[in-house]
Amino acid sequence: MAQNTYIGASTRSKEAPRHVTGRGRYADDMVLPRMLHACILRSPYGHARIGAVNAGEATQLSGVVGVIIPDDVKRRSRPFKPGRYAAGLRVPIPEYASAVDKVRYVGEPVAMVAAETRAKAEDALELIEIDYEPLSAVTDTHAAADPSAALIYEELGSNVAWQGQVSYGDVEQAFAGADRVVRENLKIHRYSSTPLEPFAIIAEHTPERLNIWCNSQAPEVVYEAVTEALGIDNVRVIVPDIGGGFGQKIHLIRKYAVLTALMAVKTGRPVKWIEDRSEHMMAGGHSCDQEFDVEMAVKSDGEVLGVIIRDTDDVGGSISTLTIHFTNKLNNLFNTYKVQHLRLEGRSVLTNKCPVVPNRGIGKPGMCFIWERMMDRIAQELGLDQIEVRRKNLIGADQFPYTTPNGNIHGSGDYQELLNRAIKNIDYDEVRKRQAQSRDTNRLIGISVVIGVEPGGRNAARDMAIFPESKQMPGAGGVEGATVKLEKNGSVAFTLGSPSCGQGHETTAAQIIADVLGVAPERISITGTFDSALSPWGVSSSNSGNNFHLYDVGAVHGAATRLREKVLTLAAHLLQTDKASLTIENGIVGRVPRSGSAEDDSITFAQLGKIAYGNQALLPDGFEPGLEQTYYHSHPHANPLMIPDAHGRVRAQYTFSSAAHAAVVEVDTETGRVRVLRYVIVSDNGTLINPSVVDGQIYGSAAHGISVALGEGFVYGADGQLLTLTLLDYGKSTTLETPHVEIEHYPIPDPFTTLGQKAAGEGAAIPSPAAIAGAVEDALTPFGVKVRHLPLSPERVWRLIHESKT
Amino acid sequence: MYPAAFEYFAPGTVDEVLELLARHGEDAKILAGGQSLIPMMKLRIASPRFLIDVNRIASLTGLRQEGDRLVMGALCRHAEVGRSGLVRLRLPLMADAASQTADVQVRNRGTVGGSLAHADPAGDWPAALLALDTTVTIAGRDGLRTVPLSEFIVDAYTTQLGPIEMVTEISVQLPKAPSGGAYVKFEKRAGDFAVASVGVQVELAEGGQCRSIAISLGALGAMPTRARAAEALLLGRAASPELLTEAGQLVQAEAQPFADTRGSVEYKRHLAGIIFRRAFAAAVDRALGREVETLHV
Ligand SMILES: Cc1cc2nc3c(=O)[nH]c(=O)nc-3n(C[C@H](O)[C@H](O)[C@H](O)COP(=O)(O)OP(=O)(O)OC[C@H]3O[C@@H](n4cnc5c(N)ncnc54)[C@H](O)[C@@H]3O)c2cc1C
């Protein structure tokens, strides 16, 4: 490969201009001939039995073309097979695309109407009559787990749908040797990234196949669901621009893809369904509320010997993502620490709330919250400095590559140095002085420094460590493809195997191709967005699990490298020289050192393109015409531990970025309002391909994590009614509440990835809730307040202060 | 999120509006800025069959000074109030409210008349204007009538507007110097409705005593109210920390908040006392001629 000219530079964004000028193309922008508009009738109850359904009047309304009620779904579709995250289910439970016998959360889809216009369809919804028999709703895991609680799935005999554990090292021994056990109860609440664009689907049934346009992050999920449910195996899934994903658009979207497809089959016309904001708030999926009872066995010098965590996950009213937040905790189970003994026990409890889905980190923010809150607590109980307790337990810079007790291999890092830099950048000592002064006022200053890893790159064989009995091996490791093509006119086109939700994949991929091929990014463009019929895709072709940096980068690099070889072969033949003597610069292949006239010595991409696609006589013998290469990439270093060993050790993910976060907050003790005064991040994302793209990920994820900590979230009433149906009530921070995030990059290349790159997509969403919680607790030291539960809305903080006084 | 079908009218005069209201009665709704009505229609909480868009009635627009009063047409937008030099100079309490109502987009469309007619218990104009001498002019088939704001709103989302009536003007007395006011809104985040809000308008005597004082409470009951007991306590007296603590307690006692996702009864009542004290301090500072930016608490 030529020297890096573009990798490492913040080149101009390729996709931003179309998005900021309103020229992105989203599913809702597309119009098909004869297209109908669908909308969905949703459960007004948290828990109810569905009785008689009368859709007669709705069907007769003029403009209405199709109605689907639970009976149709039962008759005309099959339930989904239990997926990875239902692996722990005791008895198989069929789950259809809509509710069929019972509704289990407010907003659960019950019926669909398609009409000539969306307005007509909505009119018709009001005419569908459903006899509901309301059942008592449970919205809290403690009540739900009680044997007397109303059963959400009668088949299970209990709302505790799954229980299990993983254990590494010798936990009992570790506790036996401890000077003290530090205990705490911690909670993280329900939230979501509330992407700007809710779900959007168009389905069209042609004689050849079923075409689905949808904004799915993981097209494979939709692809398989539709085939499974409708028995149509000629399915084409096309993913246009996506207005944000964050994990929301992986799982539950399949229900709607099936319903919309069923409607298209039933009516024989293309059908568009666009979810609205409130629908997404109630039924698009939430991050799970998690409660942790934690015990840490420590020595008096702060060394952590062993850990026991009892994790209770409130998974809402569906069995399809039962263990998703539990299993993902294996990915950062030890965070940045060298502790050897740990047991994680889990329970997934059903409630009458929205099902849970991944959300920027899935369970990992919870895991980091546990570690970082406990580090502070240990320091307090032992009378030690909070940063020193962390230092004592950090994996040392000389220990990389480091294998955690559960089998994760951290390729590179320097956690002490991240802390050093965060402390310096936040002016730690200076803040402590200001804090002392603040103690005479009602505006208390607090500071916190936390650290976390950010795992990247999927390996679904992870789940076998938790479900050793599972019969089917979930897709192990990863596969992802990319195609790079030198066009006949000398420009370069590429196709990625995966969709993008706005993370600048086009820009980043073009930089890699530019450096490999020796052509400016301006000459390189993407052929289009994901299309299952055209994209080279595999199991990692999903915009999730921090996959892009590992799998797509590998695939793009591989395809470009192959193409470069082919270009050189053809050029060497035409210039009558050997490949080794050639270089490529600016789309011109030439001999080094250049001599004589350019014409004899070099040949342009355009000339090569013309010949490769058009002039057989000039091609070398045995040369496959054309200049297009596809490459499928798997992580070459996926072993050891791609599948679990006898001790259940497995690579849950493959790369480990890391970051230290330092937050300074001010708490108004009269109102409980928390303001973030400064927020500093020192981040190791390995080799940065495009620093400004990485910065974008960090800004966005920090903004979200901070907002989560400060109060955004879903609130349910005791009857299972969702009280936060709009963004106004949901309460995401605006730019006015979001601090400026100061970023320092401290990249240490990963020894095992293509370019030394590590992940950046989930990023700051993982440690930031812990950073804010720590800083608020620190501010409230004079009151002796302990911050255990999120969110820290003004009222919560006020109560903490208030209760400490009484 | 599409409204039910409706018939749309865009009359050019108040008389035509009244005629349409007379013809279509309860099934008709006036559309002003649309920032409350349209969301309700999209959620189908409201499904008027006839929509009377009053935005083309030029006589309802803008704001102006008439003698010692500020007069706003019913269509005067929140943002226009916030931009007005007269308001900033003479009625900083209103500038506080204007700049904290919703977000920029909503402020550019939403109207003062619509806000009062809508009478949201957490609305900012109803609460802020109640601390001032505010009247509402109503056009009906028998001509115009003017009522004090304190009588205009009668309950949550309810005013004394009859079925064939509309708001045409809102008029506010310009306070006499040395006086000052402040509207303090506690919102969970920028652009949200108030968790609790308090408006304070004071006129000071030479010795610093309150020659007149008005304290209004927003989001602290079914409709905005005046904290009369606290006003009575402070009237004629110069504020001291003890007096303000006592006044704060009276404010809390007079608040009748209800619990919702924005806060519990206990917290809202607590906030009422805290933000009253901050509003009072800002109002007095302004009365004394000190520059005080809008408080973001
Ligand atoms: C996202 C968002 C945030 C908001 N935040 C706030 C906030 O923080 N504080 C706040 O106070 N408000 C807030 N609002 C509401 C906003 O201020 C509205 O503008 C206001 O409540 C209504 O004014 P309008 O002109 O939009 O009225 P419309 O929505 O047009 O009408 C509202 C009601 O008043 C009636 N009406 C309107 N004009 C007249 C008239 N001249 N005579 C008789 N009846 C009339 C209508 O028939 C309707 O019933 C928010 C709105 C949104 C969408």
Using brief descriptors, characterize the structure shown.
heterodimer, A: 806 residues, alpha+beta, Aldehyde Oxidoreductase, domain 4, Aldehyde Oxidoreductase, domain 3, eight-stranded mixed sheet, 22 helices, 29 strands, globular, B: 297 residues, Uridine Diphospho-n-acetylenolpyruvylglucosamine Reductase, domain 2, Uridine Diphospho-n-acetylenolpyruvylglucosamine Reductase, domain 3, Enolase-like, domain 1, 3 domains, five-stranded antiparallel sheet, four-stranded antiparallel sheet, 12 helices, 14 strands, binds flavin-adenine dinucleotide
- What's the name of the CATH homologous superfamily of the largest domain in chain A? Aldehyde oxidase/xanthine dehydrogenase, molybdopterin binding domain
The largest sheet of chain A, given as strand count, sense and whether it forms a barrel, is: 8 strands, mixed
Distance between the termini of chain B: 34 Å
Strand and helix order of chain B: EHEHEEEHHHHHHEEHEEEEEEEHHH
Which percent bin holds the helix content of chain A?
A: 25-40%
User: What is the level-2 CATH architecture name of the largest domain in chain B?
Assistant: 2-Layer Sandwich
CATH architecture of the largest domain in chain A: 2-Layer Sandwich
Outline of chain A:
globular
Oligomeric assembly: heterodimer
What fold name goes in the CATH topology slot of the largest domain in chain A?
Aldehyde Oxidoreductase, domain 4
Kindly provide the name of the CATH class of the largest domain in chain A. Alpha Beta
Q: Choose one word for the global shape of chain B.
A: globular
Largest sheet of chain B: 5 strands, antiparallel
| Rg estimate of chain B, integer Å | 19 Å
Mean pLDDT of chain B: 97
Question: Under the CATH scheme, which class of the largest domain in chain B?
Answer: Alpha Beta
Q: Could you give the count of β-strands of chain A?
A: 29
